[in-house]
Amino acid sequence: MLNILNFRNTGNLKITGERAVNGVPVGPDSLTSVSAYIQQDDLFIGSLTVREHLVFQALLRMHKHIPYNTRLQRVEEVIQELGLSKCAETQIGSPGRVKGISGGEMKRLSFASEILTDPPLMFCDEPTSGLDSYMSQNVISVLQNLTTQGKTIVCTIHQPSSEIFEMFHQILLMAEGRVAFMGKREKAIGFFKANGYPCPDNYNPSDFYIQTLAILPGNEVECRSRVGTICDSYENSERARKLKTAADRIADPNAAAYLASEATEKFKSPYKATWSSQFRAVLWRSWLSNLKDPVFIRMKFFQNLGLALIAGVVFFGQDFNQDGVQNINGVIFNTLMNLSFSNAFSTIDNYQYFCENTSTGCIERMSTSLPKYLLILQFTFSFRQ
What we know:
Number of helices: 17
Radius of gyration: 27 Å
Distance between the termini: 54 Å
Mean pLDDT: 79
Structural class: mainly alpha
Helix content: 55-70%
């Protein structure tokens, strides 16, 4: 659902309907310019610290006319706002390789990366997945605090506890592709009770809604009939008619002008940072991540040492004749092949991170790959010298 709303991964889907913000139809560029999308999977460079990651994001996401010191000041504000001060100098970490920050801190870091530009609209895809009840409540508290600053947050959530469920202001329940209820959280209990499905006392309302709207194997006919009855009741209710009237209302002209100006600015250049700024930022990040990765340093050292010894032993004492020139050409060919495959494998390892950065309009493809290749060449030739 959130992928469709954000124009993500919709290539093989047939989508009908219209996406609008404050009644104004939006496209990918205009929506991206006023919103942030925090996806379920967290993608980070594990060797960077929390502060280094946010500085890198500030260099790419914030407008090119904003001074460097202002970017750093915004990074510190976000660190304080999301409670990341204690882990600001801690490495993010990689599962199974480098121990880093906790799951809750990692999720808050995802939010911090997106709110650097202070977007008024945020989409969060299951922010509590993989977290325990305490961490989940901590993350939702962060989102609740952001709403007090005037932000609108659209969030999908998987089986929330009763404490977490109480934190939401508005809820949308869907079943079989239809709307079963949409409105204030506290109104849902009365709606289901009026349709003959009262929630038991001392029962988690979210669990009750899931069980009521679920299609159970072996009992599909009865379950679909129940879901159809509830969805029909909501569709014919006064609440649904009011929402439809509000959605069909003429758009706010100020909102239309704002979105149009943002889309126009976005159309001029899909990237907020210039190519040279992107190149410097990626080069800086790649240099830091390589220096902090001892496995990478050792691997490159022993790999190049071994290849140099093999090439030196096999091609030692070549004469400068026709056969010797052909042998030297073979050495050059093998060296280039080794460099090419090393670069290719490093790109595959970071393919998901590469796709995420390029799809969100943060980095151009060339400025993502070129600095990494230059660093690999620098390490390779340094070791071989």
